[in-house]
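Narrative progress, year one. The postdoctoral researcher (J.K.) led the effort to move from monomer predictions toward full complexes, under supervision of the PI. The following entry was the first complex the group processed end to end, covering 1053 residues in total.
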Amino acid sequence: MKRRDFLAASATMLPVMLNGFGVKSIAGSSALVSSLKQTAAVNGDRILVIIYLGGGNDGLNTVIPIDHYSQYQALRVNIAIPEAQVLRLSGTSELGLHPVMSGMRSLYDEGKLAIINSVSYPNPDLSHYRSTDIWMTGVEATQYARSGWAGRYLNDQFPNYPQNYPNSEMEDPLAVQIGQISTTTLLGNEQSMGITLQDPNSFYQLIGEPNSSVDASTPCCYAGNLISFIRQQQVLTVGFASEIKAAADSGTNLAIYPESALKNELAEQLKIVARLIHGGLRSKIYYVELGGFDTHAGQVGANSTEGLHAQLLKKLSDGIAAFQNDLKLLGKEDNVLGMTFSDFGRRANSNASKGTDHGIGAPMFVFGKGIKRQLVGTSPNLITGLLPASPQSWETNRDIKMQIDFRRVYADVLNEWFGADAGKTNQLLFKNFKTTSLFSDTIQSIASGSWINPEVWSNGRVPVSSSIIKINTGHVISVGQNIYAKDVKVEAGGKLQFLGDYSVNITG
Amino acid sequence: MALLDSYSTPLNAQTAAHLLRRATFGPTELEIANFAGKTATQAVDLLISNSSYRASPPPPVEMDESRTDAGQSFLSKPFDSGRRSSYYNYIQYWWIGLMTEQNGHPAILEKLTAFWQNHFVVVHASVDDYRYMDRYLRFLRSNAMGNFRDLVIGITKDPGMLIFQNGNENTKELPNENYGRELQELFTVGQKDFAGNYNYTEQDVKAAAQVLTGWQATNHGKDGTTSFGTVFNPDRHDTNSKSFSAKYSNSIIQGRIGPEAGDAELNDLVSMLLGHPETSRFICRKLYRWYVNPEVTQEIEDQVISPLASFFCSTANNYAITPVLKKLLTSNVFFDPVHIGGIVKSPAELMIGTIRIFDQPVPDITTEYTAFRNMMSYISYSMAVLQLNFLNQPSVFGSLPYYQTGFSKNWINGTTLGLRGSRMDTLIYPSVEIKPGYKLGIDILARLTSIQPNFSDVSGTSGISCEQVLQEFSKNLFATELSQIQKDFLIDKIMMMNSSPRTTWVREWDAYRLATSDTTKQSTVLWRCRAMLRHMLRMAEYQIF
């Protein structure tokens, strides 16, 4: 019997243990089930894999701004990657990758990797804890939220979770974290929307038989709240363990991952994720992590292309490349999108310890076949794009100015990848964020201004002759030169304002 | 009745157990019995004075019995990088042994040291020099009950901290801000006040880093060296005056030159940090979260943290730690039933607490080093898989459940629930041999025998009932009371396996009384009791304290 058939046959026997050994099933007509059916129709088979790079990744030595190489070199003479060794990318000469990142370079050249430049948020916070919290909860630096951005999305899609889960409509965990301690990213309004495990097989063995209390009542106060929380975790864990095991058993890996002797823990985690996806687990979000990026000292070895940071980037690049290849071989490439994030970027200038201190803007990577755009924002301008803009004479530190707010990427993932309603996304992210056009052929105006100002455009870049352009209502784009585009559409109330006698050349 | 006023009701078994669970890593039955009847003040005074009993325990030794230097102290020998990993383990075992041992003198020292170790974090994985870790631990242990000012000054110059937080590389030309930030954000003033306002600025981070330029650790990881420590190098020190923001009343720390500059400026810096009104609150809030409840409401902030902090930094107290802890542990709020069971046990409270309530003796570190190692490596490994690693936390923030949203709930997830259960199983079905004749785990038959009146008189004295068995095993085991429904469930569904009446147990027990060496009769008794204990230790109720 196939796994799904078995489940269909045994749906009413699923071990939902809320009341001792009594079995609870849920009526198909309930509001919960019907709302689940609706959401399942919208991009139901799409999966997001979130990769957290713990500690604050040094963006400038990950994606090297070739177009500002001499400034780059001057800012970090003791750790700069030699220009000749920077990995070049197909179709762009403005930036390149760290020499160890050949796997991700190939993905870029195949059109499956996007680089979002100088990502941060207004009023950046340089504390690991607080900044990570901001990234995970998806709030302004001045706000606090108890739930994570992805957790809120899942909570909205599966509103009564974890009451009566697993059930016949969603027998799998909503999210799976491979790791030890549950991340804030997946925290829903009340509790984590995910299941955290290290290895599917040992997980199942560990969980063993259900163990639940006959007595649903709890003592008062804090103790009672904690007891209900733990009981609920027990119920969910038991309920999901067999599903995870079944997926791990029927799933497989077809690609070659880095050898275990190399201790690429990220690759090991992604390997499990690929196997679970192939095994048919319907979890929407997977969360994995790679730590060690807090490189205050000894970021590079005797040679600037070796050392701690190079080892980490190699793990990242090799892991992602093997994972993407696996998805391709497993026939799941169309269903999966990956995304990296970190605490914050690091300073543009290095310190004397061959390291870098906490900084602001840094690149995010988004990978998968679903992307329509490979560069968002420009390679950081190391002349005009540094903070403070006008340093005092004693000021030796330089930070990379934000180009793209990370929540714009989140909004695109929710809207375009998961197909969430735009109004709902605004509510989940507490604000309306402009698209980055990461999943769109069309570049939109996001403000009024000059055609050649990248900040006017959704992708943060000046249009080129292959660009499809839309000028949105209310925006006036001033043109001071001949312009080229594949197509230009001006919405009612939008305006192209010519500052002289210039032509529009449509190349499409 | 103010929350911070002294709790006047004499302790009963429940409140004594509560105090011991929170102030130590968990009580034995005997300790609970000894503390019941005391006032809170008497009890806490005893926990404080008992700390001197283990002020200078014997040092860790080589615990590999196959080596010729087995049983000898290694700390006075030249640094040996080949043994660095084993020696570090021995140092960690040494400390876990002190937490676990039952010497008749329960004390606040180890739990408070663990608090500071999770506060002033230095991690072995970064330092990788066992001598440094030993010095760091001993520094914390000998100052844990002392003065906060001494702790801050000492930890700033601690060689392990200089390596871990890059103070070692902090120079006037290129200041390394790592420690300057953590000193404020994590160690003293805290990042924000209770209302969410920043307590310091980025300028303050830079200025603090400049004050701290010039300190270096010596002989780090150098084979064959017999000494190590901290030096101040005036050539690396920034001699300019350092300006702080309005958060510190625009303080200026005067730049100094010469060999004494480092200490002089550090003293000024620590005085400035301790003069910040949020420092005492930050520390008191963290102590409250550690000892009372991770959740701090506005009421608690106003009525507990605020007055406790005022006392902590008062002229009379001047940042002495023990009086503050005494005030907290003897307060009404500490004994308020609302807070009993209000924290999820850390892996230490779960593992060490269970081993202590089961009275599992700790072998002598000097004379029985192999057995000692066997026991401590088991406890250390178990805590590590449950995500607690003393002396080796994942980051300078310490263990995540002490700071992340949800606090102690973060110890619990699918994997750790399963692992917690399997770790407890090993103490119910003893399999870990500590030494010949001693397998770690509860001795069920001995416990039951001790409550059976006239054990051998089977015909004249009836056997103990299921209810008595449950009563014995659940005594002081849970922070909250089990309901009657739960008790019935444990007896009928688990102990009697949903198949036999309760009277069957008495017959089986009496059969064992008649033939104690009959392994089948033993096994029947063990089978039922182990099933029940296994279930009890996996209950949600057992995960809280």
